[in-house]
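Hi V.,

Quick status before I head out on leave. The structure for the redesign project is tokenized and pasted below; the design run finished overnight.
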């Protein structure tokens, strides 16, 4: 449900990074923050415990390029991964436009990934969203570590539906981080056929005819966007 402001010709998208604790959500935001021009980004606001685990959430505003004459503003948020913080996760998920699910690719983290992706589905359902409709990117993170499952194994074990947008990443090295953001933004914007025709303010998340948005089968409106999307809809080779 993007927020459109016609007077200032601006679209606001809320993108939530979801996933198990210590999977790399905060690391994604830190990399984006460190590598975005100061005039295009706001402060990265993090509420961590002493052990650096995200207690509440991280938040960062970013300005992106233009889309059909409208400026795109993003609100990037993370959720706390620990089981105990389900209420916080639900709060952060409200009015979400797109989700990046950050998978911890380590073999030992499989159960945590599984619980978290099911928890995402449940929480989206509770607020009337559908994980099969909402723009979603699966980021397979920590590909640099030795004991990781293959992407095929992770896809099967986590029951990732065929055709969902995926990115292989090593967020700690910055690999795949911008690609993930560009991909989710593009999927979100594919719902906004023409911002000029949307009502002022918040619009319903599921616009008529938007069913295919999660799956990059209907081509996103790349010609109108100034953001290049490398390898949209496929898992890139790690060294690309
Ligand atoms: N080796 C490796 N470590 C990572 C990667 N991404 C994150 N980490 C580390 O994993 C830990 C947890 O990351 P964090 O971003 O705080 O996880 P969050 O709980 O999902 O926000 C930190 O020590 C990160 O440095 C990665 O791609 N590779
Ligand atoms: Mg965190």
């Amino acid at each position: 449900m993007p927020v459109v402001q016609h007077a200032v010709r601006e679209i606001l998208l809320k993108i939530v990074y979801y996933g198990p604790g210590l999977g790399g959500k905060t690391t994604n935001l830190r990399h984006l923050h460190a590598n975005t021009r100061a005039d295009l980004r706001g402060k990265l606001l993090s509420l961590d415990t002493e052990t650096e685990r995200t207690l509440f959430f991280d938040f960062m505003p970013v300005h992106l390029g233009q889309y059909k004459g409208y400026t795109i503003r993003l609100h990037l948020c993370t959720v706390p991964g620990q089981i105990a913080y389900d209420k916080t996760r639900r709060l952060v998920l409200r009015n979400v436009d797109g989700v990046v699910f950050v998978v911890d690719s380590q073999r030992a983290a499989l159960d945590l990934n599984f619980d978290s992706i099911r928890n995402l589905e449940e929480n989206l359902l509770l607020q009337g969203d559908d994980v099969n409709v909402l723009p979603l990117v699966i980021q397979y993170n920590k590909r640099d570590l030795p004991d990781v499952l293959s992407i095929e194994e992770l896809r099967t074990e986590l029951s990732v539906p065929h055709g969902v947008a995926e990115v292989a990443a090593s967020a700690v090295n910055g690999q795949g981080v911008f690609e993930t953001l560009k991909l989710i933004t593009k999927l979100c914007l594919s719902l906004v056929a023409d911002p000029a025709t949307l009502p002022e303010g918040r619009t319903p998340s599921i616009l008529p005819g938007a069913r295919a948005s999660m799956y990059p089968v209907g081509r996103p409106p790349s010609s109108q966007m100034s953001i290049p999307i490398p390898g949209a809809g496929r898992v890139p080779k790690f060294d690309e």
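Above is the designed sequence. The pocket of guanosine-5'-diphosphate (ligand 1) is lined by residues 19, 21-27, 53-54, 78, 81, 102, 141-142, 144-145, 170-172 (CB under 6 Å).

G. will cover questions while I'm gone.

Best,
W.
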